[in-house]
Structures are given as C-alpha cells and as structure tokens.
UniProtKB/TrEMBL annotation:
One of its GO terms (molecular function) is ATP binding. Keywords: ATP-binding, FAD, Flavoprotein, FMN, Kinase, Multifunctional enzyme, Nucleotide-binding, Nucleotidyltransferase, Transferase. This is Bifunctional riboflavin kinase/FMN adenylyltransferase. It holds the Pfam family FAD_syn. InterPro entries: FAD_synthase, Riboflavin_kinase, Riboflavin_kinase_bac, Riboflavin_kinase_bac/euk, Riboflavin_kinase_dom_sf, Rossmann-like_a/b/a_fold. GO terms for biological process: FAD biosynthetic process; FMN biosynthetic process; riboflavin biosynthetic process. The keyword Transferase applies. Pathway: Cofactor biosynthesis; FMN biosynthesis; FMN from riboflavin (ATP route): step 1/1; Cofactor biosynthesis; FAD biosynthesis; FAD from FMN: step 1/1. Residues 182-307 form the Riboflavin kinase domain. Its EC number is 2.7.1.26, 2.7.7.2. Belongs to the RibF family.
Length: 308
C-alpha cells in the first residue's frame, strides 16, 4: 500500500475509487465502507484510496471535548493496509483544511488530486467548513464534476449502531467482548515493553509494562483475559490496566503477565495485547498475601475464558 501525506504526493495516482472519513476505529462500519470500495474499484478497474486525517477534527475545533482515539496512527495504517487497499492519503487537519468550503474540498481533493470516479461514504458523512457538506451535496457535486457517489448504511450489532462513541463507551465499562463485536476484531494495545518497577517479578508474576506511548485505547481499570503477541508468537496473558495502588501509584498504564512463563525477555520489543474478556475491576489490596491469592484466582478464571 502506498501512503501519501499531501495532495501533491497523490497527484497522478488515479483514476480512483475513494472513501473519506476519520476512520478512528476501523470498526465494522468502516470495514463495510472499505469492502464496498474494493468491490467498486474492481468493477471499474480503479485504484482504491482511503482519505483520512492526521488527527481528529476536534483536536483543532473542539479541543476541550477531544476524546482519546480507539487506535493510533500506526494501528490505523496497519489495519488499512491489511484490508488490501492501494493507497492511504492522510491529510493534515489544520486551519486551512478546517476552513475549506465543501465545494473546494471536493474539487481539490477528489477531482484534481485523485481523479475520483467513484466516491463511497457513510450515510452520516459531512465535509467542508463547519460540516456544511452532506451526502445530498456530494451527490450534486458528483453529477457536476463527473464522479459517482455510493452511500453505505451504518452497521448495527444487536440493534446498536456501530460507532466509535459506542465502542469507547463499552471499553470504558470494561466490556471488551462486546466492543470486539462492534469492532469486528479483538481490541488491542500495541507498543514497546519498557522497564518498570519489577514488583510483579518479586512476587512470582513478572509483567511486561507497556510504554505510555503505546497505541490503543485503554479500557476500564481492571484485569482482562487476553493474549500477548511478540515476535510472531501468541501467549495467553493477564492484562492489568490501572495505576497499581497496592504498592506504588504510577501513571495509568497496562501491564501484562504471560501465564506460566517466567523466562521471556520482552524488554524493548514491540508487542500486541489482545483483550478477550473482563475478569474483575482493579482493587487495592492490604498486602502481598491477599494480592497473590487474588492473582491466582484471576489466572484460573483466565485459563477458563481462554479455554486452556
């Protein structure tokens, strides 16, 4: 997959089939757009391009209400590449883009730069300064400028509309299993393992501490059953999200204990943590003995959840 960070870089790539959006989770709704994009491109022998932004528009337009993203830029690029698209165009969401009219955005991005012949968007798609452009305007501009517009209905799961906000709410409740259904995959955190306080090792449960620069939204503070992936190997694991109140409070992070393994050296490796199911909320214990008892209970539950 080719990656572009400006319209200039993307020029002469077309003709294309294009989808546009924040794509801040690559959830089942986004996956439906990508599938429709690939199908349309195959019908008309076009190259596929996904257009997105380097940050959520709220980072510029409404910073007080900016939410943490479900996935980071590296995760996003990896997921889009795995979906089989030809190119990813990531536009810088700055004042100039925020103030660009809907008509100018279509002309400069879709027509002049990408030579778009088919544009695929969700039913709630908005574009241009102040979100002035909607699906109806996009249809109208497409008729004027020579591209077809296809609108994809929102995905649903058990009557719930699939959206980034709904997934974030589930993660905030610790419901990683249901969040995974809306995502269409297990939720993950990806990052480098760094040196921590090594307290877990002293009580017989060594943990891999994820860097705070790791990508992937942290769910509710608590313990989760899941998998740790390193160097292509998958290990059953207990993930703990929180601030470690029992010993020494630290900034919020996730650490992972690989079940029945004390020989792994994961320092400085990039690992992926998959969250399968919630085990219990985080708690402060009155000492090491009670903590060890609870950890062993957790591990028994995790073995059962993972079918070990």
């Amino acid at each position: 997959m080719q990656t572009f960070s400006s319209l200039r870089e993307a020029q002469k790539f077309g003709p294309t089939a294009v989808t546009i959006g924040k794509f801040d989770g690559i959830h089942r709704g986004h996956q439906a757009l990508i599938a429709a994009l690939r199908s349309a491109a195959a019908e008309h022998d076009l190259k596929t391009v996904l257009v997105t932004f380097d940050r959520h528009p709220d980072a510029l337009l409404n910073p007080a209400n900016l939410k943490w993203p479900l996935i980071g830029p590296k995760q996003k690029e990896s997921l889009i590449s795995a979906a089989g698209l030809d190119a990813l165009l990531t536009l810088t969401f700055d004042d100039a883009l925020a103030q660009q009219s809907a008509q100018d955005f279509v002309q400069e991005t879709l027509v002049d730069a990408l030579s778009a012949k088919i544009v695929i968007v969700g039913e709630d798609f908005r574009f241009g300064a102040g979100g002035a452009g909607d699906v109806a305007l996009l249809h109208e501009l497409g008729q004027q400028l020579g591209f077809e517009v296809r609108v994809i209905a929102s995905a649903t799961e058990a009557g719930l509309k699939v959206s980034t906000s709904a997934i974030r709410e589930l993660l905030d409740q610790g419901d990683v299993a249901k969040a995974g259904k809306l995502l269409g995959r297990v939720h993950t955190t990806v990052g480098v393992v760094e040196h921590g306080l090594k307290i877990g090792r002293t009580i017989g449960f060594p943990t891999a501490n994820m860097s705070r620069e790791a990508e992937g939204y942290l769910p509710l503070d608590g313990v989760y059953a899941g998998w740790l992936i390193a160097d292509g190997e998958r290990y059953p694991a207990a993930h703990s999200v929180g601030i470690n109140e029992t010993f020494q409070a630290v900034p919020r992070l996730v650490e992972s204990h690989v079940l029945d393994r004390k020989d792994l050296d994961l320092y400085d490796k990039i690992v992926t943590l998959e969250y399968v199911d919630f085990v219990r909320p985080s708690a402060k214990f009155d000492g090491v003995e009670s903590l060890v008892v609870e950890i062993n209970r957790d591990l028994d539950k995790i073995r059962n959840i993972l079918g070990l």
